[in-house]
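quick one, 89 residues, struct below
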Amino acid sequence: MNTYSKKDNEYQDNGHYIVHGIHYMSLYTYRNIHGLPRVSPEINKKIGLSINPLLCEHIETLPDEGHFKIIKAYNLSYLKEHESNLFDI
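---
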């Protein structure tokens, strides 16, 4: 699996990539863009672990900043479709 970074053509903005025409977003970026409450990285990690990788495509990205080594960015369509279940915390 490729690991994408802001140096790649697929990079759109912090935590947002378009790969082969599909939009991917980190949970942090999705929350910010859609006006959802910010939460701790630990809660975002818990939400990420609840996403079934067989049902939701994701890519691995290098964060623009921060101490995490890898950040998963999820298929945007999946995040929109399951927003109420994923972010109901």
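The mean pLDDT is 90.
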